[in-house]
Design brief:
- The chain is 41% helix and 18% strand.
- The protein is an alpha/beta fold.
- The strands form three sheets. A six-stranded mixed sheet has the order 2-1-3-12-4-13, sandwiched between helices.
- α2 (50-65) links the parallel β1 (35-39) and β2.
- The longest helix is centred in the first third of the chain and has 25 residues, at 3-27.
Length: 310
């Protein structure tokens, strides 16, 4: 019986030894391990492509705060959503259409949205070859169409929505559909003559032109979308509140941080941006959310089936 208090005390001590460091870490605002960052593969998912676009901004955050980041590119848009929801990523860069389901599942909340020339918007488009006879989207019936990832905002959601608004049902009316997987692959398919129309963002088109992958004299814009909210950087809601605040503070002032040049503050497509807005409202994502109601799972499934019949 005399040993029981000792055993109890030993058990309590062991419990404290195990749990106190965890509690201390939770209360500690210092971040010692790198935060895991996952990026959607907007331009093919290569480490020297999409990752290179965002390395400068995360390097700038590291220089101003000391926080380290482990940056990876997902194999697909859906993979990034699942990484956040499986708690295998702390921060993610999404397209609006992939951010919304992650947010609705409780796996993501807005961290920062880039501001370029005073705006946080970008554009999608449907492109065709310069010598094409196509004049309007209605003319695309019977043509060959390339789209990107089915979870991409500007290489799938908006191009499909634009076609549907013009009375074109892609699954029914297109001769052929290629799901190319990325903006870059869509534009390559168009440039190589494998399709007649391709959906991609203007940022990716401009990047492809600069890289010499697309001859701007051989490709033209068939239609341009309405403004789309800029692809957001999001964080996991279960990150400690102190860490969330530190990240927001860092992104909001990174463009003014000592030693940071304007050339280091970049966003989607590797474009230089003015700054990052950490107060961008959730309501700013309403437009793509409404598009997702029209371009629903039934529409996606029909397009995927059409693409598989090549």
């Amino acid at each position: 019986m005399k040993h029981k208090p000792t055993l109890i005390a030993t058990a309590i001590a062991s419990f404290l030894i195990i749990t106190l460091p965890v509690a201390a870490q939770a209360a500690d605002t210092r971040i010692t391990a790198p935060l895991r960052v996952m990026l959607v593969p907007a331009d093919g998912g290569t480490e020297d492509g999409t990752k290179a676009d965002f390395q400068p901004i995360f390097n700038a955050i590291t220089r101003s705060t000391g926080i380290l980041f482990d940056i990876k590119v997902g194999q697909s848009y859906g993979a990034v959503v699942e990484a956040m929801c499986a708690k295998k990523a702390d921060i993610a860069w999404f397209g609006p259409a992939s951010y919304i389901p992650a947010r609705d599942r409780g796996c993501a909340k807005l961290l920062a949205v880039a501001v370029e020339k005073g705006q946080s918007v970008y554009y999608s488009g449907l492109f065709t070859v310069r010598g094409s006879s196509l004049k309007t989207l209605k003319d695309t019936k019977g043509e060959r169409l390339a789209l990107g990832d089915v979870n991409s905002t500007s290489s799938f959601l908006y191009p499909v929505g634009m076609l549907m608004d013009a009375g074109v049902d892609p699954a029914r009316d297109m001769q052929q559909i290629i799901l190319a997987g990325s903006h870059a692959n869509v534009l390559t398919a168009l440039a190589e003559g494998r399709v007649d129309v391709g959906g991609a963002s203007f940022d990716s088109f401009e990047k492809a032109v600069k890289a010499g992958a697309i001859d701007p004299n051989k490709v033209r814009v068939l239609a341009k979308s309405d403004p789309i909210p800029y692809p957001p950087i999001a964080m996991h809601p279960e990150l400690p509140a102190a860490v969330q605040k530190q990240l927001k503070d860092a992104f909001s002032t990174v463009h003014q941080a000592p030693g940071i040049t304007p050339d280091q503050v970049r966003g989607y497509g590797g474009h230089k941006v003015d700054r990052y807005d950490v107060n961008f409202p959730e309501s700013g994502m309403d437009a793509p959310a409404k598009k997702m109601v029209m371009v629903n799972e039934q529409v996606k499934t029909a397009i995927i089936k059409k693409a598989s019949n090549r």
